[in-house]
Hints:
The protein has two domains: about 1-105, no CATH class; about 105-140. The protein contains one helix and ten strands. It has one helix spanning about 105-140, and strands at about 1-5, 10-15, 20-25, 30-35, 40, 45-50, 55-65, 70-75, 80-90, 90-100. Strand 8 (about 70-75) and strand 9 form a beta hairpin.
Amino acid sequence: xxxxxxxxxxxxxxxxxxxxxxxxxxxxxxxxxxxxxxxxxxxxxxxxxxxxxxxxxxxxxxxxxxxxxxxxxxxxxxxxxxxxxxxxxxxxxxxxxxxxxxxxxxxxxxxxxxxxxxxxxxxxxxxxxxxxxxxxxxxxx
Length: 141
């Protein structure tokens, strides 16, 4: 069972008890966060959201706030004496996924309703089609 969830503007494939680094989140160390923008879930069957799957949330716990390794940006133009050096360290939050909740909340109800509607619509359409064929054959004679 896994889910693809959007966290701080980026998409991650997450499973239960998985640790990952995401862009800095608000919250204290040891705090709990939940993400409700789940784009896809796989739990025996695949559920794709448009744009998000309703009723499913991903719960996580904040382990630590850290900084990534420094990235050096160096620009130079040959024979011009132009050199520029800059650095950047991204602020990250380490989280652990505690669970994916909300499965089987409304799947059975949603599947049962469209079938009943289709049967009702099909029952109404069949007699109407037969009468139009008879009317067409009478006008042809």
